[in-house]
Specification:
Number of helices of chain C: 11
Strand order of the largest sheet of chain C: 1-2
Shape of chain C: globular
Radius of gyration of chain B: 18 Å
Distance between the termini of chain B: 31 Å
Helix content of chain C: over 70%
CATH topology of the largest domain in chain B: Rossmann fold
Largest sheet of chain B: 6 strands, mixed
CATH superfamily of the largest domain in chain B: P-loop containing nucleotide triphosphate hydrolases
Chains: A mainly alpha (338), B alpha/beta (256), C mainly alpha (305)
Number of domains of chain C: 1
Strand content of chain C: under 5%
Helix content of chain B: 25-40%
Order of helices and strands of chain C: HHHHEEHHHHHHH
Strand content of chain B: 15-25%
Low-confidence stretches of chain B: 248-256
Oligomer: heterotrimer
Shape of chain B: globular
Strand order of the largest sheet of chain B: 6-7-8-3-9-10
Largest sheet of chain C: 2 strands, antiparallel
CATH class of the largest domain in chain B: Alpha Beta
Number of strands of chain C: 2
CATH architecture of the largest domain in chain B: 3-Layer(aba) Sandwich
Mean pLDDT of chain B: 87
Low-confidence stretches of chain C: none
Chain lengths: 338, 256, 305
């Protein structure tokens, strides 16, 4: 038997506590930037959690997940532009639009397999991208600014950055709870069965398509909510949030953190955005002793390091961060127990 | 006489120019263990695939327990109580042994659009799954990942999954394939125990097992039935000896 | 009418250009079963090399030849260093690994050439119009593109269908073990095929350099079009890629040119001109969706993958 509370669990607990206490740190240090950064991390983690439901648990290699971020965001921004500011209208609308898009895309794309599925989901996301670019009334290529953040009849004020952070955090934890329940439910067992061996699932009596489609729609809907949040966070939406490389980022988060694990996507989002934020400084720091003059400049080229890093992770650390933690837990556990 | 459990009438299937099933008719009575033997390429696996619905026959009819299932998809047949095990093990390797069987139980427990309750703690699924594992002799492996089982245990797991839906009839495609003598003997014991409860159609190369278990045997050559009858009749049948037993399976022939 | 013919030629030219990209992708897909997102980076490199070498040598043609050779070498090196480690892994690994390579190449280009972008002027001897049909003038450079890409397509056809290496390529697409059993050096074959795909992408980039600005990220948009083409055509099928590339080239070009007018006629000025830009960009993706619904393996499915 494994010990009930492993090193991995400790890290996850620390992560939860750390995220919950972040505003306290910000209040003490006055480091407002960290609050902005972490709000972004939390929202993107939520998007990654939703992608993980179909990619990690369902084995559906969707390459168009950023479309839902855009759809949720645009729904919110367009309603705001048209004078509807209530979040009670905006957010359900964002969910509904994402769900409908997911239903249409899923119904068509889940008939295909392998590379075809990857490409068709990507193509549909590109369609959403071009649709947004073409909407001249809503800013076209230039995007659309939110006049005001979503209002909730005085219940909460999202313009307060701390409040907004906590709203996002609660929704992230709610998403994780949802995914946890889903994946352990009968539905989730079917989803994992399909990932593992779809032919066999059909053979023993499961209409796999229906279950996959349901999972696909749930994941899209959840990501649409993340989209509504991100529109509120940046007070701005643009087609570029749906460009295919954004979908790539989400996949990177899921795999980097650990596919098919509850907290993996959160680790992944944290790691990717941290790398984005701090890798430049790290590179400058390493280069400085050798060549002080170009140290700052070297930091600008951080993606030169990140790119091959991704390749190396793919090649040598498929379990992602969560897998690494599990491995460490095993080692530590063995040390403690003779 | 009551209607046979499985009734196959004039079944035919060709792949291009090759006739895999040639106007084949077959009855399997309720409660009998009916073995299908024949040399390689006789169309045994093709027959199983048509019976279970993975392959659609070109013509002919299949009745199962009184229902015409010719046009039904595999899972519909499985819901009627016609279960198959696969020749090449086809399991959910990254799930636990118990999860594998529980999924098979769940397939027969109505739709699976239940999103909230923990299925891994649902006794309605877990108890029958554990019972099936018990019958297949795998109770002590329930929590192992399916990938970590031995080849023989994979076969047992296949059997447990087929049993999980509480089928009325089992289609077993070479359950002994690749098993060592000891594992084979265990499988024979298990099948003999099951025989009293179920109708079984067994495709198998292991003649010793076939003659030890079967109530009736049908011999297939090039997709055609060349003989069908009790094991003793088949042993004595000259056509069978000539077409099959004598030349292909030395050990089997000696045994005969 | 003149406009229509000119747009048809533009469609043909664009389609043939896309074919260069899609052919490399589909070869690599079909033979190594590798999803290579970094294909667009090779296209970008081709364009940067062409602009640089043409400026160095002072000759457009020499610059172009050097650019193609350079992309070929980069492609082969990339295969040896990174790609061959991805063969046999699942598509998710390919997507992630090559996504990482995109980041790497974009940044590498920024490091070497700076963020500004380059331009490659059309050489004077091609910078004019020629009368290709009585009364119809067409850009000499674009006409040259059509001629060159058609020649490359013919070369590819002969290479794949008529030569020993092509036979190996086709055999490799359907039966990896068989080629291995024949004692062919499969590693070398793969390196060459990848290099060939890279060179084709480099050629496409080089061709586009005088038409578009040479800039970072230029591969990312066109890569998706190339993927759409390989999927419509059927993965692994060169012929499918050719047909699909022309289809996409025509529909995209003609759609952008005439679809807005049609929409205005149909929906009225207001609604028509609002919907047109979005719809004409989306047309190719709608086409792909329709084709995949009807034929989930593409038009010319080479194998069941």
């Amino acid at each position: 038997m494994k010990p009930a509370f492993t090193f991995r669990h400790m890290v996850i607990a620390a992560l939860i506590v750390g995220l919950a206490l972040l505003p306290l740190y910000v209040a003490l240090t006055g480091d407002r930037f960290m609050l902005t950064l972490f709000t972004r991390i939390v929202i993107l983690a939520m998007a990654a959690v939703s992608l993980n439901l179909i990619l990690g648990y369902g084995g559906m290699m969707s390459f168009g997940h950023a479309a839902y971020l855009g759809l949720g965001g645009y729904t919110t921004a367009i309603l705001s532009f048209e004078g509807v500011h209530s979040g009670f209208v905006q957010w359900p609308a964002a969910l509904a639009v994402s769900a409908l898009f997911g239903l249409a895309v899923g119904a068509l794309s889940l008939r295909t397999r392998g590379v075809y599925f990857i490409m068709i989901t990507l193509a549909f996301a590109q369609m959403a991208y071009y649709l947004a670019s073409g909407m001249a009334r809503y800013g076209g290529d230039d995007g659309l600014s939110l006049e005001a953040r979503s209002t909730f009849a005085g219940l909460m004020n999202l313009s307060n950055k701390t409040t907004f952070y906590y709203v996002c955090l609660v929704l992230l934890f709610a998403s994780i709870l949802l995914v946890w329940r889903l994946t352990n439910s009968r539905f989730g067992m079917v989803l994992q069965g399909v990932r593992s061996n779809e032919t066999r699932m059909s053979a023993i009596g499961y209409p796999a398509f229906r279950y996959k489609l349901t999972g696909f729609v749930i994941a899209g809907t959840l990501c649409g909510l993340a989209g509504a949040l991100i529109a509120n966070h940046t007070d701005f939406v643009s087609p570029s949030m749906m460009f295919w490389t954004r979908s790539g980022d989400l996949i990177v988060m899921v795999v980097l953190g650990g596919m098919g694990t509850l907290f993996g996507p959160v680790f992944g989002a944290l790691a990717l955005l941290f790398l984005e934020q701090f890798l430049p400084h790290l590179i400058s720091f390493i280069v400085r002793p050798f060549n002080p003059a170009s140290a700052a400049k070297a930091g600008e080229y951080w993606q030169l390091v990140l790119g091959p890093l991704l390749l190396i992770i793919v090649l040598f650390a498929r379990g992602g961060i969560d897998g690494l933690l599990a491995m460490l837990s095993d080692k530590l556990g063995r040390k403690v127990r003779p | 006489m009551s209607e046979p459990m499985l009734h196959v009438e004039n079944l035919a299937k060709r792949f291009g120019g090759i006739v895999a099933t040639d106007n084949l008719s077959l009855d399997v009575a309720q409660g009998e263990l009916h073995a299908i033997i024949g040399p390689n390429g006789a169309g045994k696996t093709t027959l199983i695939a048509q019976l279970s619905g993975q392959l659609r026959a070109d013509s002919g009819r299949i009745r199962f327990a009184g229902d015409d299932v010719t046009a039904l998809l595999p899972h519909k047949r499985s819901l009627l109580g016609l279960a198959r095990s696969f020749q090449i093990t086809s399991l959910f390797l990254d799930l636990s042994v118990l999860d594998n069987v529980a999924l098979a139980v769940q397939a027969h427990a109505g739709h699976s659009f239940h999103f909230w309750r923990n299925a891994r703690k649902d006794e309605a699924l877990r108890a029958p799954a554990r019972a099936a594992l018990e019958r297949a002799g795998l109770a002590d492996r329930a929590d192992w990942p399916a990938a970590s089982l031995s080849h023989g245990e994979h076969r047992q797991l296949e059997l447990a999954m087929a049993l999980a839906g509480q089928p009325r009839m089992l289609l077993l495609d070479e359950p002994m394939a690749g098993l060592g003598p000891e594992e084979s003997a265990r499988m024979v014991t298990m099948l003999r125990a099951l025989k009293s409860e179920l109708t079984i159609l067994l495709v198998e190369h292991d003649m010793e097992a076939v003659f030890a278990l079967a109530d009736r045997i049908t011999v297939l050559v090039y997709g055609r039935v060349i003989a069908s009858g009790a094991p003793d009749d088949i042993r004595a049948n000259a056509k069978v000896r000539e077409a099959y037993l004598g030349e292909t399976d030395k050990a089997g022939a000696d045994h005969v | 009418m003149t406009l229509f013919i000119e747009q048809c030629l533009n469609g043909l030219q664009f389609g043939l250009l896309l074919f260069l990209l899609a052919a490399g992708l589909t070869l690599v897909f079909g033979i190594m079963d590798l999803v290579n997102l970094a294909h667009g980076s090779l296209y970008m490199l081709g364009a940067y090399f062409a602009a640089t070498f043409a400026a160095w040598t002072g000759s457009f043609v020499l610059g172009a030849v050097l650019a193609i050779l350079a992309t070929l070498l980069v492609g082969m090196a990339l295969e040896v260093i990174a790609m061959r480690r991805l063969y046999g892994r699942d598509h998710l690994d390919h997507v992630l690994g090559t996504f990482g390579l995109i980041l790497f190449f974009d940044e590498l280009v920024r490091l070497i050439w700076g963020p500004g972008g380059l331009s490659l002027p059309v050489p004077p001897w091609l910078d004019r119009s020629i009368e290709i049909l009585p009364g119809i003038q067409y850009s000499a450079y674009r006409f040259a593109i059509i001629v060159v890409t058609l020649a490359v397509a013919a070369f590819l056809y002969v290479l794949v269908m008529r030569t020993r290496i092509g036979m190996l390529i086709r055999a490799g697409a359907s039966n990896r073990e068989m080629v291995g059993a024949l004692g062919v050096n499969i590693k070398l074959l793969y390196t060459l095929v990848f290099g060939l795909g890279a060179a084709l992408a480099g050629l496409a980039g080089m061709i586009q350099a005088p038409i578009l600005t040479v800039q970072i990220g230029m591969g990312e948009n066109i890569l998706i079009l190339a993927f759409v083409i390989t999927v419509i055509g059927g993965i692994g099928s060169i012929r499918g890629a050719f047909v699909a590339a022309l289809l996409v080239g025509f529909i995209d070009t003609l759609g952008r040119a005439f679809f807005p007018q049609i929409l205005v006629e149909l929906l009225g000025r207001q609604a028509g001109s609002t919907a047109a830009p979005a719809l004409s960009s989306m047309m190719i993706y709608i086409l792909m969706a329709v084709i995949l619904v009807v034929k989930p393996q593409g038009l010319f499915a080479a194998s069941s993958r």
